[in-house]
Amino acid sequence: MKFRLQKLLDIAIKEEELRKQELFKVRKEKENLLNEIEKNRKYLDNLENEFIGKKIQGNYLHMLLEIKQNGELYLENLYKKLEHVENLEQKILKEYLEKRKERMSFEKLKERAIQKFRIEQQRKENKNMDEIAERKFFFGGER
C-alpha cells in the first residue's frame, strides 16, 4: 500500500526535527547566558566586598569603581541578550509544537489509510472465499 501523503509526512518529520534541534541550540545558549550572568554577578558581589571594611584610596579605588561600572553594563547587556534568547525560545517552541501537531495529523491519516486498506483487503479475501465455497458447492462439492 502506498500512502499518497507520504512526502508531506516526511517533510513534516524533517521540519519537526529541525525545530527540535533549533530549540535545543537556543536552550543551550540560554543556559550559557544564565551561567555567565551568575558568574558576573558573583564577581561584582566580591568586588563590592572589596570596598567594605577596607580603606581604599586613589587610583586603586578609581580602578575598582570603573571595573564595577563596566561589569554592571556588561551584566545589563547579558540580561537584554537573555530576554532576546527567551523570546526566540518561545517562538521556536511554538513552531515546534505546531510541526509536531502537523506530523501527528499526517501519521493519523496514514494509520486510517492503512486501516482502510486492511479492511478492503479483508473484504476482498472474504468475497473470494465465498466465491470459492459457492463454486465448490455448485460444481462438485459434497451433497
From TrEMBL:
It comes from the Bacteria. It is found in: Cell membrane. InterPro entries: Flag_assembly_chemotaxis_eff, Flagell_FliJ. Signal peptide: none annotated. It is a peripheral membrane protein. Keywords: Bacterial flagellum biogenesis, Bacterial flagellum protein export, Cell membrane, Cell projection, Chemotaxis, Cilium, Coiled coil, Flagellum, Membrane, Protein transport, Transport. The keyword Protein transport applies. The keyword Cell membrane applies. GO terms for cellular component: bacterial-type flagellum; plasma membrane. Residues 13-50 form a coiled coil. Belongs to the FliJ family. This is Flagellar FliJ protein. It comes from Thermosipho melanesiensis (strain DSM 12029 / CIP 104789 / BI429).
